[in-house]
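Comment thread on ticket #2218

A.B. wrote:
> Attaching the input chain for the structure job we discussed in standup.
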Amino acid sequence: MLTLRLAWRSFLRHRRRSIITTLALALGLAMMLVVVGIANGAHARMVELGVRMGAGHVVIEGRGYREERDLDRVVEGPAEILAAARRLSQVRHALPRVTASGLLTAGDASVAVGLTGVDPAIEPAASEVASKARRVAGDYLRTRAQLEYANQPADIYIGSQLAENLDLGLGDRVVLTASPRGGGKPASAAFLVRGVFRTGMAELDGFSVQIPLDEAQALLGLGGAVTEIALMLDSPDQVDAVVTAMKAGLRGRGELEVLPWQEALRELYETIVLDDAGTYLMMVVVFVIVGIGIFNTVLMSVIERTRELGVMMAIGTSARRLFAAVMTEAAVLAVIGCIAGLAVGLSIHSYVATTGLDVQEMFGNKLAVAGVVLEGRMYSRLATGAIVEWTAVIAGIVLLSALYPAFRVTKLEPIEAMRHV
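C.D. wrote:
> Ran it. Output below, let me know if you need it in another format.
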């Protein structure tokens, strides 16, 4: 109790210096909480958009297909895998897909495109591209059974920039040409434009088309095979568990591989890692500034009280108690600063978590990062564990910065200290 009273008296003795140091400490913690919360929210939004734009939280595909795009590396017998995936409680959607390159022709104009064969019944519920929010004209794909006439061309769903480049409108006829599995003569099929989408991503809006899954399988000579099965989960936190479960279920099928989104969206993942590294580097700078401020405050307090400390040692106060008094003074700074920092930081976090930050107002336009367009509002995400972790880090830095001044006190000689002016 005496040690705490000494520390508190020292804190109040130089109020201006103590308040400035405490404010610096509080602002440092508040800034860390706000920056980490916004970064986490932005990263979560990037992952969500990247996954919903087509990748999936988990992707099952032929081993090596992602590197070579070889139609001999496909998923045979997808029905069994789809059934196994849908039995997992974490899986919200399991989507069979066929992806390949092709040539889209309209009149005399032709454009190389990336084609995706999808199941029209389930894709709109899971894919951002197929959602109504991204549709700027027309409707989504229909299965052949839903067409008015059995022999009419199937539907095709195209990007807005592609439609503009080829001067296409709803109901226009196009021809899609692609190389089938096993090579040989390219195959062609006619389609009618059913709908137009806009994502804000140039590679999708300008070069992407979707057609019904069975039409893609027929065009590419795949039979019942698909090039990938994309799994959409309830939460990105469940990815590892689902990857482990699917690998166990596919044991014995070495021709297939199970990829988490971090591998399926390698560029996006590396961008997030790099951004985290930049955030942590900034935190190091903040830590150094806070540490120097605390070191200076405690050391000046010790130097100014050298005579007083010498008298205390002369009347029998142990070096251990003086060490504890200095460290307690630092702890008082840490407690007050952290409380103030938490109050400010969590208030700002709460506002951003509920109201959000408008991306267009912040950057003047939509923000494109690693092939993902951030738009609308970003929200702060800050877990309780992160709050405790960063608060503990700041408090730890304060105590570490006070170690040398506290150790210096224990080396004072009472007689010399009492002569100090």
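A.B. wrote:
> Thanks. Noting for the ticket: The longest strand covers residues 91-106.
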